[in-house]
Amino acid sequence: MFKITLLGFLFVVSHVEAFQKIKIENYGQVKATISKDEMNRISVEGDRITQLFGIEDKFETELDEVNGQVFIKPLTIGKDPLSITIVTEEGITQDLILTPKKGPSEVILLQSKEGLKNQESIETSFYFKSLPIQQKVLKLFKQLAGEGRIRGFVKEENFDRFKYERTSKSPNLRVRPITVFKGREFTGIVAELVSTTCLPYLASPKEIYEEGDMAISFPQQILEPNSPVRIYILRKTGRE
Questions:
Q1: In 78, 123, 144, 203, which residue has its Cα 20 to 30 A from 170's Cα atom?
Q2: Which of 118, 153, 176 is the last residue of a domain?
């Protein structure tokens, strides 16, 4: 499960005494410490955080939508690290391992090692290539959910909708492609899934699977009549 909270105002943190400046690499992972008792602030130099992913009920979080910074506080008791992923406006995806500790709130400033304009494609980065296929798929799904830009992928602005439309194995479902992101190895498709029945319908990814699909993400499987649900499809490039 993912937890995302958007706020259109600045949340002020008082009594900040600790400051951490951390170098990051796109699709990499870094560690930091945070206060277990107060809100901690995370920002990316020269960029804005637009999304936050993590396990529900592990932390309280607020995303300052105006300034593009995140405020986070652990909800669990103990010193077990929290694992979160942030996605920025410039397309950076970064994993953070946050270790709670006693003390005042922390300010964490993330700095890109190479500069935002020179970040390499996700598919060619050493970190991404070393991941198991399941983690590669998860990271790409997180990017697709943002529907912004995926570094190294080309967003097809005027794609052939007939090329990406698919016929459901069930007469009760209809798939409408919305956006296509094409990379060297993978192609991501953002689509809408619609139930044409008069009653709630339990949908399965198997009903819309086509040869060449690597994974299909359903945010929800119970579809209300004529209420589109956003889904994400990952395919091998060249199998469209």
A1: 144
A2: 118
